[in-house]
Amino acid sequence: MSEIDLLRALPAVKRNIQMRKDAKDPAVVAIARQYGEMYFDGPRDYGYGGYRYDGRWIPVARDIVAHFGLQPGMRVLDVGCAKGFLVKDLMTVCPGLEAFGLDVSLYALMNCEADVVGRLHLGTAERLPFPDRSFDCVLGLNTVHNFPRSRAIKVMQEIQRVSGGRAFVQVDSYHTPEQKELFESWVLTAEFYDYPKGWISLFEEAGYTGDYYWTIVE
Length: 218
Known about the structure:
Layout: E1 2-3, H1 17-23, H2 26-32, H3 37-41, H4 58-68, E2 75-79, H5 85-93, E3 98-103, H6 106-110, E4 120-122, E5 137-141, H7 149-163, E6 167-172, H8 177-186, H9 196-206, E7 211-215
Parallel strand pairs: 1-7, 2-3, 2-5, 3-4, 5-6, 6-7
Helix pairs in contact: 4-5, 7-9
């Protein structure tokens, strides 16, 4: 396993922490965890506040292609692909790459980019509907933490199984008690989160051998 920031090219996200903290309650969290229209395209209180394609994943896709040495004809899976923006951009920066996605949200898949129609699968990361080592690279960006710890282990085992260890995951984490407090005031969907040391223990328990990094709320 190696720690590497493959999402460093993403623009910084502007977050109104106080507004989210004031609005967050169990009902809001429950709606957000349905991963439907309110989560993606409803008010910011419930999630993204409008999840639309703007090309921001193109430089990330370039970094992923370079890091894994991806070439036309190779197969890539984005677990938790939402509307398929990264799937689209991976194929844009590497024409001929066979990129696919999987997400639990029917709403997201029904509102995907036209370029990825037929490439996105409805399903859960706990049971990836693909054979062992059927992908040259598997990605799980800000997805694994949306499961309780025991189920997150299963997700990591599935990512390992279909990738053979050529994979990258990014998860919610923090380095200080202050960052932890800030994160907890913002988070809606994460069910398991920990300091990096705790996450690395989970990865090892799952037998994961791929790469990883952290999403830190600032």
